[in-house]
Design goal:
It is a single chain. Helix content is about 40%, strand content about 15%. The chain is of the alpha/beta class and about 350 residues long. The strands form 2 sheets. A 5-stranded mixed β-sheet has the order 3-2-1-4-5, sandwiched between helices. The chain has a 5-stranded mixed β-sheet with strand order 8-7-6-9-10, sandwiched between helices. Helix 4 runs parallel beside helix 6 and helix 7 runs parallel beside helix 8. The chain starts with a strand and ends in a 31-residue tail after the last helix. It binds adenosine-5'-triphosphate (ATP), magnesium ion and fe (iii) ion. The site of magnesium ion (MG) has 5 residues, from loops. Magnesium ion binds next to loops. Belongs to the KAE1 / TsaD family. This is tRNA N6-adenosine threonylcarbamoyltransferase. It is found in: Cytoplasm. Its main location: cytoplasm.
Length: about 350
């Protein structure tokens, strides 16, 4: 039977129902609107909103799929990493539902869910093969990860300061754009020239594949300083947005080239996370992959940002691998939500004696 999955680790409240082969039967995402005035996600508001939204969202998703709760084979939820209040709400809801239905509960690592999204049916013809290089670029993460199998992840490099999405959001804020800033900045950048304003390329050509964005953010602040409280000329703001986006793309392309040097066995380059929704960045990554004779895959935009389809899919992958290993079906009712949950800890699920 199908899996029902819940996502509540940040400010998206989401529910999805997937068939055992990963086909999405229904999915809904509510992007909470109570945070914009604060210029960032307020954890307490997010947790309360998840609590208010979830019951009706789950019912509506079931109705979309024309299923009853009794049709469900198991329940899954993101249990970390993320904002603990929201994680507690989603996990408790999912565990309660599983208990009431007498079906298993599968705990999902939110970052692993982003990492495995490219393997959803229909994204890469024949399914994304292991091993692949994953660029995870979101509001909270910026990492190059060698994905060697379900549960087997090796971090090759990551940001030494801000996450990529954080940089987009902060620069958008400086430009007076709404929040979340990424999509607004991309839109404004379409009216600007990417080479109009000289900006630094932090860590370009440096060894390894670490990232840094704070210098870029500082450079933008310096370009804006002469204007003080004055409104920015529209063309200047657009040029700055385009130049920033170009600098990010240059840096990311360089870092990915280094990461691919570190992982010659990679069969595919995959981008995931909210920033992977950025069209110029996707085009650039595709170009890097093509030059190296590799395939490039990025999930459709709505599967890049937070959603529950990826949570259901990660649960199905866990389920399948446990079965392959001759382990009992996963049932993580005693696993607590956790604000931190390193990917390196995900292999132990498949060691004998684990549930
Ligand atoms: P995490 O998954 O790391 O816990 P998160 O849930 O905030 O963090 P996502 O929902 O995956 O991350 O992505 C949101 C981030 O992606 C925000 O920082 C947002 O500005 C950025 N983003 C979304 N669309 C775009 C875009 N088109 N261009 C650039 N950035 C974007
Ligand atoms: Mg989000
Ligand atoms: Fe996310």
């Amino acid at each position: 039977g199908p899996v029902l999955a819940i996502e509540s680790s940040c400010d998206e409240t989401a529910c999805a129902i997937l068939a055992p082969d990963g086909t999405c039967l229904a999915q809904r995402v509510v992007s909470q609107d109570g945070h914009a005035d604060f210029g960032g996600v307020v954890p307490e508001i997010a947790a309360r909103a998840h609590l208010a939204l979830l019951p009706a969202l789950v019912e509506a998703t079931l109705a979309d799929a024309e299923l009853a709760t009794t049709d469900l084979a198991f329940i899954a939820a993101s249990t970390g990493p993320g904002l603990i209040g929201g994680l507690i709400v989603g996990t408790s809801f999912a565990k309660g539902l599983a208990l009431a239905l007498n079906v298993p509960f599968v705990a999902v690592n939110h970052v692993e869910a982003h990492a495995l999204t490219a393997r959803l049916p229909g994204i890469v013809p024949g399914g994304a093969p292991f091993p692949y290089l994953l660029l995870l670029v979101s509001g909270g993460h910026c990492q190059c990860i060698a994905v060697e199998g379900v549960g087997h992840y090796r971090k090759l490099g990551g940001t030494i300061d801000d996450a990529a999405g954080e940089a987009f959001d902060k620069v958008a804020k400086m430009l007076g754009l709404g929040w979340p800033g990424g999509p607004a900045l991309e839109k404004l950048a379409r009216e600007g020239k990417p080479d109009a304003i000289a900006l630094p390329r932090p860590l370009l050509h440096r060894q390894g594949c670490d990232f840094s964005f704070s210098g870029l953010k500082t450079a933008i602040a310096q370009k804006l300083a002469p204007y003080g409280q004055e409104a920015l000329p529209h063309q200047f703001a657009a040029d700055l947005a385009a130049s920033f986006q170009q600098a990010v793309a240059d840096v990311v392309a360089d870092r990915i080239n280094h990461a691919l040097d570190m992982m010659p066995q990679a069969r595919l380059l995959v981008a995931a996370g909210g920033v992977a929704a950025n069209t110029p960045l996707r085009a650039r990554l595709e170009d890097v992959a093509q030059r190296r004779g590799l395939r490039f895959a990025a999930p459709p935009l709505k599967l890049c940002t937070d959603n529950a389809v990826m949570v259901g899919w990660a649960a199905l992958e866990t389920w399948r691998k446990s079965a392959e290993r001759g382990l009992p079906a996963p049932n993580n009712t005693t696993l607590r939500p956790r604000p931190r949950w390193p990917l390196e800890d995900m292999a132990q699920r498949f060691e004998p004696g684990q549930t």
